[in-house]
Amino acid sequence: MSRFDRQDELNHPRNEVPEFTQMVEKSLSRRRFLGGAAALGAAAFFATTPLSRAVAAATSSPLLGFKPVATSTDDAFIVPEGYKAERLVSWGDVLFDAVPEFKDSGNTADAQAGQFGDNNDGMSFFAIDDNNAILAVNNEYCNYELMFAHQGDNMSAQDVKYAQAAHGVSVLTLKKQNGRWQLVKDGKYNRRIHANTPMAISGPAKGHELLKTAADPKGERALGTFNNCANGMTPWGTYLTCEENFNGYFGSPGNADITPAMARYGIGHEGAGWKWHQHDTRFDLAENPNEPNRFGWVVEIDPKDPDSVPVKRTALGRFKHENAELVIADNGHVVVYLGDDERGEHLYRFVSKGKYNPDNMAANRELLEEGTLYVARFHADKDGELKGKGEWLELTHGKNGLTAENGFASQADILIHARMAATQVGATTMDRPEWVAAHPSEPVVFCTLTNNKNRGVKDNQPVDGPNPRAENHYGQILRWKPAGGQHTTNEFDWDLFVLAGNPTVHPGTLYAGSANITADNMFNSPDGIGFDKAGRLWIQTDGNYSNEGNFAGQGNNQMLCADPHTGEIKRFLTGPVACEITGLTFTPDQRTMFVGVQHPGEEMAGSHFPFGGNRTPRSSVMIITREDGGMIGA
Ligand code: FEO
Ligand code: CA
Ligand code: CA
Ligand code: CA
């Protein structure tokens, strides 16, 4: 969540349960709620594990071997007893010998282009051998209030260049020395990709009229990537970085035409406060109305080749991408699950045309070039039930009403305006789909729906199905099982794995959360999720850290760990003041976990993480190990 997003939150009272909400609480009985899927009827999905209400309250999962940590409001990164957390890299750390060191104020754009970017988010670990690796890390955005003495109020062209250089992706060479992973300065894979790095536009939308600009009349070569939220990793060794809130970087002095399509993507005259359009005409909608169409994509990067050109894969659709969870289906097709993180937007699936070849990695390199995009529609078994069936609706030109009469002249049109195509086919509006994570060995997929204050308030966002609470402050985790256990089938069963909530503040209502939420493990706004090899589900939060009102007792943002079979959830770590915990990846032996601390001290909240004293707070990647060298979580 950026401060601009948060401003939107501040305009809306968060700490009250409005009258409408209370009505809904009464209308959905707690009994039915607990008797439904969220009572952890996981048995339907994991047939070998019988479940009951008692299991949810138990603390016996063999997967969760650590002692849970309490909530915290300290300016600290707190891990369980027997675990160790060390800093790997922070915003501004130097990647190349010739680059000046980061200063707490007065940095330059040139220096930043050779330093670790800001607001690290999704990341992936690429092992080379036991002691050498690459870590590719997204740098989502920056905090002007921490970056500039003027806090963003008086942006210059140089300031915009600095901010642009702080965005994008950092590729880091890592070496294990003296038993711990370290960043190698001037390492051979080190690379900064930022908002001005040349990249290719590829796939069905390449060369489309809407992608052409004066600087790129062919519509096939873009500059840069920004607001890189979460990520994905392919089995052929590439990194996927996902462009999320790209809209806010564009604006105009007021004379640009804002089309309905631009409005659907949140593009307007004002922008979100980044002010790039005031100093860089590329972001001025009056000068370059097509430039925003070149963002909102998934970008594929070869981390092993620092000279490679990143590729925007338009077959995966254009929206506010969260992550890209890739699985190889049993029939060899590559399936990528994709969330569009905005209130009332949708959940997508891509299925490649070609098949994965485990014996020829080079042959896999273009698998994301061509395929079929789908969007999800959910049905509840009965009104108010928290489980049901669903289907993937194909977003292919000529099908499901995606025709010229309805405004879609080609497949490229559908991909560039995927949100509008999703509406045309009748997709379900969701409570902000964030990360998707597929279980490593079973055909079950999880997605965080982080929160949605508009649920039950806006006409197109009814309280229904997997989005069962009006003015949803807390979020939920949805899961589905594809029919026949095959990721390429178009039907699935779904239920809710957990409804986050606050059983202390809202006992006996849907806002208390599901049966697996207690006063000891409660949290709000699940966002980053990922499985480890053993099948533990790691859950990171990007929520309200006020510790008051609806959020009383929930403390700072945190990471939890769940047993997907029993539903048990334990808190694994807590982050420093005003941070979000986001980004997770493991070494192949599962004995080191990397976790991101994003925007500690945003909005001048008073953090000095990670250096303490009076230092500027800096987003950082942390390394977590066990003192006894064991597997993380076990
Ligand atoms: Fe960048 Fe939806 O979080
Ligand atoms: Ca974030
Ligand atoms: Ca996120
Ligand atoms: Ca979020």
Automatic annotation (TrEMBL):
Domain of life, per lineage: Bacteria
Residue ranges the record marks as coiled coil: none
UniProt cross-references to Pfam families, sorted A to Z: PhoX (PF05787)
TM region positions: 33-51
Protein keywords: Membrane, Signal, Transmembrane, Transmembrane helix
The UniProt record lists the keyword Membrane: yes
PANTHER family noted in UniProt: DUF839 DOMAIN-CONTAINING PROTEIN (PTHR35399:SF2), SLR8030 PROTEIN (PTHR35399)
The protein's name in its UniProt record: Transcriptional initiation protein Tat
Protein's organism: Oceanimonas baumannii
Lineage: Bacteria, Pseudomonadati, Pseudomonadota, Gammaproteobacteria, Aeromonadales
